[in-house]
Amino acid sequence: MYRIRIEIGLEMLSCFFGLLLMITSAENHTGKIPAPRNLTTSIKNPFDVTWSWSPPHGVAADKGCIKYLSSLNSKKYVWDFSLSRQVYFALNDEITFHVKAFNNCDSSKEGEWANISLPAPPGDVESSVKNFQCVIYEEGCMNCTWQPGTKPHFAYSLYYWQTNLGELQMCREYIVSDGVRQGCHFHKSKEQWNASHIVYILVNGSQDYAEIRPFYSEVDPQTIVKPYPPNITSITLKKRKLFVEWTEPSHFPAHCIAFDLRYKDSKLTHWIDITGIKDPKFSINIDLQAKYMFQVRSQYNVYCGSKSLGEWSEVKYYDSRFFCCLRSLTQESFSKTCLKGMERF
């Protein structure tokens, strides 16, 4: 029995020194580990790319001492023991993938880089669509629009993909202007899309066997919510206070929406801002000898995604001096004073 234990112990020790020898032999005279081998690129679709490689020459893959650092164009660094990396992205420019090995058991031992590149899409950059943008204007609905490139009469097509989808999907409802497709309408009942996932978008086009340069985009729905501007419905004076009320967006959950109010009077040159109002109403103390301007906008708050702001509403005015004069029409001298003050605005 003792002999068996000794033999097992010798075998484990032999394995340890074997691993040490493999790692040491993989390092050249400069102390660096050779670059990973057999670096290849696998493209599932235009947005789903996987890079794979083999361990450096003489280094075992499963011994736990070799870790890999990879990057895209020397950005988006990732540390991993894996021999592959899957990335989702929009390929509008050339991408160079870099990977090298480190000795995780000896941090002083780093490796040499292996590199492989994906070329930029073919075609003239100027032929690609311009000013591409997407906006979610109500829950589950999104519009993506663009302007034609240097070939405005091309037949444009939009394709999209999300990680929960198997294949690329084609837009089912285009936005057409002057007979040319210049956008796509996404609706929760028509398109197979999910507003909680990143949307990867491709816009291309062709006509008479000519092609434009494809345009790729990566859209995060949580950051492009843009509620319609509220409508200020009433401004009421009560005991030297103005009470302002407005409409709420009807297409978003109430807990996802807050409001910003801004106002100024005839004596101010700048707006006074009040942010993060939860209910569609607010009150301020006023100067009865001033005229006031109000605007309101909605904000999609961080509880439902990234904070994003809608447009400001139309300006609404309130002139307390006008009501002052109405109430004092029987007092001629006071009425003239009010009207004279109103002329200064």
Descriptive notes:
By secondary structure, this protein is mostly beta strands. It has helices at 2-26, 320-327, 332-342, and strands at residues 37-45, 48-54, 66-72, 75-80, 84-88, 95-103, 114-118, 130-138, 141-147, 155-161, 169-170, 174-177, 180-187, 199-207, 210-211, 215-219, 232-238, 241-246, 257-265, 272-277, 281-285, 291-300, 308-309, 316-319. The strands form six sheets. Strands 10, 11, 14, 15 and 16 form a five-stranded antiparallel β-sheet that branches. Strands 19, 20, 22, 23 and 24 form a five-stranded antiparallel β-sheet that branches. A four-stranded antiparallel β-sheet has the order 4-3-6-7, with no helix packed on it. The radius of gyration is 32 Å and the shape is elongated.
Entry summary:
The chain is mainly beta. It has 3 helices and 24 strands.
Write the layout of secondary structure elements.
Blueprint: H1 2-26, E1 37-45, E2 48-54, E3 66-72, E4 75-80, E5 84-88, E6 95-103, E7 114-118, E8 130-138, E9 141-147, E10 155-161, E11 169-170, E12 174-177, E13 180-187, E14 199-207, E15 210-211, E16 215-219, E17 232-238, E18 241-246, E19 257-265, E20 272-277, E21 281-285, E22 291-300, E23 308-309, E24 316-319, H2 320-327, H3 332-342
Antiparallel strand pairs: 1-2, 2-5, 3-4, 3-6, 6-7, 8-9, 9-13, 10-11, 10-14, 12-13, 14-15, 14-16, 17-18, 18-21, 19-20, 19-22, 22-23, 22-24
